[in-house]
């Protein structure tokens, strides 16, 4: 497939998507998000891929939705076109794990895009923010919802109401970021972690992702029941037999369903 706003590569069993609008700090327009959705769909169908990394440039993961493209929208343009949510939802439906590797700015929709991924690795240069308030708008792709779930109400309110940015260290302390990595190692470390994931049993990886996400969608008792039933179903997989046999036989497991 031809892409003009992203670069799509594979590294072994890892799919790598690099946001590539360098002149606009990777500002997210409709076409770019459509391309990310197409690339994710292709990786989802590709049996050779077990996990995905989305990254940007050294300067910016993404500095937000494209302000120029939005500036003259009327309410009806935004509402009828289901602006933002229409094509962003495709990220949520990807069953394979996605790591966001963030260097530089992840602002507005950029921060929201990172939060839609399953975990965030941040370069020590990363800066996260929800500065929409400065533009006379509010976050529109999860900033007011995923951010408080990730870092709590106090810091989410601070970021959304004052537009202040968080550096990588604060973001990790607050729970937004899984790992901080030196900038020149960021993409390699994300690919290495994705390769580890891609070496495990894919159905189990999907079950883990679904179960963790369930924690944010349901009361504890329902989440625990979902986990328990899913756990039981794992015993129907050949990969469970292989994983446990390999442990008993003191060898490395070779998972079949990758
Ligand atoms: C369009 C953008 C952009 C954006 C940067 N650029 N951010 N273009 N949309 N979101 C462009 C600039 O216009 C400029 O183009 C070029 O990228 C370099 O940016 P500079 O401002 O010159 O760089 P710098 O001084 O280093 O400042 C970097 C920055 C700043 C702090 C990231 O650009 C900035 O504050 N950007 C806007 C951040 C923002 O408000 N994001 C939220 C957007 S609203 P030229 O042609 O002049 O060189 C949003 C809503 C989400 O995301 C709703 C749901 C998705």
TrEMBL record:
Keyword terms: Lyase
Keyword Lyase listed: yes
InterPro entries tied to this protein: ClpP/crotonase-like_dom_sf (IPR029045), Enoyl-CoA_hyd/isom_CS (IPR018376), Enoyl-CoA_hydra/iso (IPR001753), Enoyl-CoA_hydra_C (IPR014748)
EC number: 4.2.1.17
Class in the EC hierarchy, top level: lyase
Entry-linked SUPFAM superfamilies: ClpP/crotonase (SSF52096)
Superkingdom: Bacteria
Molecular functions per Gene Ontology: enoyl-CoA hydratase activity
Protein family membership: Belongs to the enoyl-CoA hydratase/isomerase family.
Record protein name field: Enoyl-CoA hydratase
